[in-house]
User: Which sequence fits this backbone?
């Protein structure tokens, strides 16, 4: 039985390895092709590894195009979007541990917003942002996405499992709400906090439709919008497109690799709770 189990695990590992290679092949091809010339990519007999590696595609992106501006805008929007994690955790803490009139009704309303597609609310939100004079600004791009009903729900469900006696003991010792939240609640919610940080980073980094709507010119475009424009302007320059896509995907892969364990743990705990 032990031998059969070892053989079965070995076969499973081989199958998973093969499937992983199949899934990752396009990403490897994209990254390696970003170091190829357009002539090498389009030759009749394709090559996997670059014959004459070059960084010309990346140099062209930043020297002759506005890709540096797109990268700066994406970084700014992503960093500002991370403030939403703190806001959502505070809201989840309030719904979980505070008692106030209409709390349950308000929480149900928050959950109901999950059933509303984001595209439905884009027009009224744009009108509000326009009346407030926030179009073509970083604030207008970030502000509507700071609050997430899904994140509030996760934080509320997790914080609800924390013992009230534990928090009451801290209050007896003289701890205020700010101290309890920053020194007790946030450390205990580290798995969910890490999960939300990664999800918020990915959403901010890949933001496309809302920055496109809110921007009046390319000075506020993000990498996603800039890459879409490149596909229309340089549809035959595959090396340039591969370089742009590589710049977009590498930070996401790095962040996921760093926080992989926290993501898995956060998803497991959120589903269990």
Assistant:
């Amino acid at each position: 039985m032990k031998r059969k189990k070892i053989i079965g695990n070995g076969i499973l590992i081989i199958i998973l390895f093969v499937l992983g290679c199949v899934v990752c092949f396009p990403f490897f091809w994209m990254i390696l092709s970003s170091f190829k010339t357009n002539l090498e990519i389009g030759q009749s007999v394709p090559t996997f590894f670059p014959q004459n590696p070059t960084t010309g595609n990346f140099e062209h992106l930043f020297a002759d195009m506005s890709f540096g501006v797109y990268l700066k805008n994406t970084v700014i929007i992503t960093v500002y979007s991370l403030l939403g994690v703190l806001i959502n955790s505070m809201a989840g803490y309030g719904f979980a541990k505070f008692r106030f009139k209409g709390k349950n009704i308000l929480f149900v309303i928050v959950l109901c917003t999950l059933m509303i597609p984001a595209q439905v609310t884009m027009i009224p939100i744009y009108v509000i942002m326009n009346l407030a004079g926030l179009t073509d600004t970083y604030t207008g791009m970030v502000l509507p996405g700071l609050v997430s009903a899904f994140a509030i729900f996760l934080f509320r469900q997790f914080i609800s499992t924390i013992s009230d006696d534990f928090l009451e003991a801290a209050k007896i010792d003289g701890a205020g709400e700010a101290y309890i939240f920053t020194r007790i609640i946030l450390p205990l919610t580290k798995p969910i906090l890490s999960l939300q940080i990664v999800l918020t980073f990915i959403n901010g980094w890949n933001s496309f439709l809302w920055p496109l709507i809110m921007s009046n010119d390319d000075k506020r475009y993000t990498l996603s919008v800039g890459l879409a424009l490149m596909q229309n302007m340089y549809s035959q320059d595959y090396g340039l497109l591969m370089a742009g896509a590589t710049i977009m995907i590498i930070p996401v892969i790095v962040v996921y690799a760093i926080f992989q364990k926290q993501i898995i743990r956060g998803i497991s705990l959120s589903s269990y709770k």
In short: The chain has a mean pLDDT of 84. The CA atoms of residues 66 and 226 lie 8 Å apart.
